[in-house]
Structures are given as structure tokens and as C-alpha cells.
Prior knowledge:
Elements: H1 2-22, E1 27-31, E2 34-38, E3 43-46, E4 51-56, E5 65-73, E6 76-81, H2 96-105, H3 108-111
Antiparallel strand pairs: 1-2, 2-3, 4-5, 5-6
Amino acid sequence: MPGVLGFIVIWVVGAALLLHFTRPLMRVELRGGHLYASNFRGEAEIRPSDIASVTQNIWINVRPITLHLRAPSEFGRHIRFIPPARVILRFWVEDPIVDELREFARTPSERQ
Length: 112
């Protein structure tokens, strides 16, 4: 019986940690010149002027990207998502989508 109890405790702790770290992840899609964020229940459009910066954590395996917003959206001030899987031989290099999002966030006067 102690083995079963230990398994249940480990399973519950593991499930809680998994939920804690994956719950803030969202789906982000750039379509038709507009950026949309979804928490799988609702969707919001993120305007380029709403984005203060774009960062990526290159030191963990899934390499999450975070959009830092100037003002809170319906999903908060940070939108975090995992980019599509790519074979990246140099782990310290940011994903190309980070540059695309930074370019999207630049104002028209900054692009010239």
C-alpha cells in the first residue's frame, strides 16, 4: 500500500507542476497582417503598438517566446507561447519568429 500512495502523491505533484507551467501558454497567430492571441477559450487581437518588446528564453528546451505588452490586455501584460519546432543547431540563437514579431511591432516610421 505505501507504494501506491507514493505513486499517487508523485502523480498529483507532477500534474500540478505541469499545469502550473503550461497554463500561461497561449496560441499566437499572425494572419492577414494582424496578430491574434488565444488562450483556447477566447481570442484577442494584439496591435503592433501594444507590443513593448519580444523576448525568448533560449536556455530551456521548448524556448518560449514572450510578448511584453505596454498595457494589460484581456490576457495580462505578457503573452507567452512556444514557437513551432525547428531544428536549431545553435541553441543560443533566437528563433527567426522573434525577429518577425519585432518587425511587426515596429511603427511605420521606425521601418524606414
